[in-house]
Amino acid sequence: MMIRFAIIPLLLALNFSMCKRHESAADSSQPATPSAAAAAVSPAVAPAASPPKITKTVVDQTAQTIIFCYHRLVDKIRYPGTEITPAAFEAEMKQLKDAGITVISMQDLLAWRRGDKNIPPRCAVVTFDDGWKSQYEVAWPIMKKFGYPFTMFIYTEGVRGGSLGGGEAITWEQLADMRDNGVDIQAHSATHQDLREGHNIMLAAPGGKRTRTKLTGPQYEQWVQNEVVGCKQLLEQRLGIKVNCFAVPFGSYNEHVKEIARNAGYEAMFTVYGQPITFTSPADSLGRYAIEANKPKVFVDAVKMIGTSSGGAAAVAEVGAANLSTQPADGETVHTALPLIKANLSRVGAIEPGSVQMRVSGLGVVPVSYDPKTGTASYQVTQKLRETSCTVILSAKSEGKKVEAHWTFGIDATAAAAAKASPSPTVKK
Ligand SMILES: [Zn+2]
Question: Is the pLDDT of residue 314 over 60?
Answer without folding.
Answer: no
